[in-house]
Amino acid sequence: MKKLLLVVISALAVFAVQAQNVLDPEVLWKFSRVSDPRLSPDGSLAVYAVRNVDWKASKGNTDLWLVDVASGKSRILTGDSSNESSPRWSADGKSIYFLNDAGGSSQLWTVAVDGTNKKQLSKLTDDINAYGISANGKSIWMAMDVKVRKFNGKDIYEDLPKLPVVSMMI
Predict the structure, then answer these.
(1) Which DSSP symbol is given to 163?
(2) Would the pLDDT of 12 be above 80?
(3) pLDDT above 60 for 16
(4) Under a CB-based contact definition with an 8 Å cutoff, are residues 91 and 133 in contact?
(5) Exposed/middle/buried for 119, CB within 10 Å: 0-12, 13-18, 19+?
(6) Strand 33-39 relative to strand 45-54, pairing
(7) Is residue 87 scored above 90 in pLDDT?
């Protein structure tokens, strides 16, 4: 009887401890989020994006990382306060293209695989949403929002006359 009581008390203690380790939103935000892995042309390296979020500051940052496929060793490639995302390899595997919001809008940048020679390639007025590089590396395509027309919010919602002018996007 004493053994059974001891087992029941032990089980309840384990359940009580486990109940405190719930995966709520605050806990989930502490995990880094890995996305968009891309293998180098020769297959020796992979580049990927890692997003970290500071729950209390309500702010996040995305950086690019490289991993050596053979050894599994990772190192940060871009690690500043701007967000770097959407990495793509150059055709020769010596540099990586990516989107960066350092100037206030998402633009195309490049960096050498060793982390040097980071430079901005585009200086457009609007954000680049997506891009791609041709197999030979000689052409780059970009996708962006297109402004169709400006209109007043009251033109659509007559009961809300103080809505600001907005741009319609397609």
Answers:
(1) P
(2) no
(3) no
(4) yes
(5) exposed
(6) antiparallel
(7) yes
More confident residue, 7 or 45: 45
- Asked if residue 14 has pLDDT above 70, the reply is no
Note whether 132 and 103 are within 8 A (CB).
no
Give φ, ψ of 50 to 5 degrees: -125, 125
Please give the helix or strand (H or E) that residue 69 lies within, else none. none
pTM above 0.70, yes or no: yes
Average pLDDT over residues 5-27: 58
* CB-based contact 156:137 (threshold 8 Å): no
* Residue 26 confidence (pLDDT): 72
CA end-to-end span of the chain, whole Å?
A: 73
Q: Which two tokens stand for residue 11?
A: 């089980």
Q: Please choose, from the candidates 76, 82, 112, the residue with its C-alpha nearest in 3D space to the C-alpha of residue 97.
A: 112
Mean pLDDT value across residues 71-87: 94
Q: Would you tell me which CATH number, out of the four given (2.120.10.30, 2.40.160.60, 3.30.565.10, 3.40.50.2000), belongs to the domain 25-124? A: 2.120.10.30
The residue extents of the domains of the chain are: 25-124
Apex CA 88: angle with CA 86 and CA 89, to 5°? 160
Report the distance separating Cα 38 and Cα 167, nearest Å: 35
